[in-house]
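$ fold --in a.seq
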Amino acid sequence: MPGQRVGYVRVSSADQNPDRQLDGVSVEITFIDQASGKDTQRPQLEALLKFVRAGDTVVVHSMDRLARNLGDLLEIVQSLTDRDVHVDFVKEHLTFTGDESPMATLMLSVMGAVAEFERALIRERQREGIEVAKKRGAYRGSSPRISPGQAMEMRDRVQAGESKALVARAFDVSRQTVYRYLAAVTEIEKLGGRVSVGDFPDSASDLRGGSQDDAKRG
C-alpha cells in the first residue's frame, strides 16, 4: 500500500496565505505553522514528524520553509529518510529518499547553504534600507498603538462576551494582536504587576497585520 503525501507549510505572519505554497500540489493532509524562519517553536512540524510513517512523502514548497538553517535542514531530512520517509522540495525540484549518492547529499548541503545565504542578504538589505530611511527622516520606528487602558478594555469586552473579531475591528488591529494583548494582561495580573506600555508587543506588523480581513473572519 503506497504511503501518504503529507504537506508542510510555514507562513511568517497571519496575513500570509498558506494555500499559495502548495497550490496545485497533490497532498492528502497538510500541517501549517505560523512562525518566523528563526522560531524554534514549530508545533505543527513536530506533529508532522510524529505523524508520518515509512513509505510516506513529506512535501514542502522550499527548503527555507522546512528548516531554520542549514544544520536544521540536514537534521530534519536525515531523520525522515532514516525512517524511510521521502522528502520532496517543490521549488528546488529535489526529492530525497535515503538512497542518495554522496553527490546528492552534497547538493542538499549546497542548496540549503544558498537558501540561508539569501535570507541573510535579505536581512542585510532591510537593515540598510532602514538606515537610509532614518537619514532621510522617513523612518521613525514603531510604537505601541494600544495603551494599557485600551488593553484592559479589550480584556473587559472579551470577558463580557464580545467576540475577539469585533474587538479587533473596534481597535483596528488583527485578531492575533488581540490574543497577544489579552495574554500579556493575563500574565501580568498573575504576577501581581501593573500593566504598562513596555509590557506589550510594539512592532507595526504585530499591530496592523491583516486587521480588517482578519477581523472579518472571526
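$ fold --in b.seq
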Amino acid sequence: MRRRAGVAHNLVSLNAYEFRFVEIELKERTAAGQEDVFSPISRMIPMTSYDGFHPDLTGGPSGPLSEARRRVHHVRADDLDGGTAQTDGMRRFAAISGARVGSERMWMGQTTVAPSTASADHHHGDSETAIYVVSGHPEFVFLADPAERGAQPEEVRLRTGPGDYIFVPPYVPHREENPAPDEEAVVVIARSTQEAVVVNLPGLYVLGSGQE
C-alpha cells in the first residue's frame, strides 16, 4: 500500500491476466477543526501488466479530423474488397485500409489458399505482418541461416492450425502453402502499413543484416 497526496493505490495481480484492482481513496474533511479521514471510493480496472495505463491522460488528436476519422466503421464479412495486391496461388481481400475506412497506420484483411496450392515467394516491404489462422492448416515457409558455415540455407516450414498466430517481420521472404487436398485455408492478416504491400519474388533467400 502506498499513500501519496491523499491517494492510495492497491494493485493486486489475479491469475494470468493480472487484473489490477485500483482503489482510490479521496481525502475528505468532515468538519472544521476535525481530523482528516479517508472515504474509500473503489474502482475496479481490469488491466494487464503490459497495458500503458495513464489515468490522467486527457489529451486528444490535434488539428482537424476527416469525417472518416470521427466515426467507428463496420465492415461486413460479405463486403471485403478483392481489389488489393495479389500473389499467385492465394487470394487476398481487404477489410480495413486507408481507402476503405481512412486507416493511416494499419491494413487488415483475409487471405484464402486453395487446396494443394502454394503461393509465389514474396515479402511485404517495410510492413510488419501478423496472421491469425481461421481454418485449415496452412504452412509458412522461409529460409534460415544454415547450422554450419558454408552450408546452404535451410528451409523452415511452420505448420499451423486454427487459432494459431504467425508474425512476419519486414522484408522477410516467405510463402504460404496449403498441402490439404480437400480443405481451403483461411487466415486473417493485419499489417502495419496503410495499404497492403506485396513484393513478389523469383525465389526465397535469407535476409541478411542491412539487406532488403
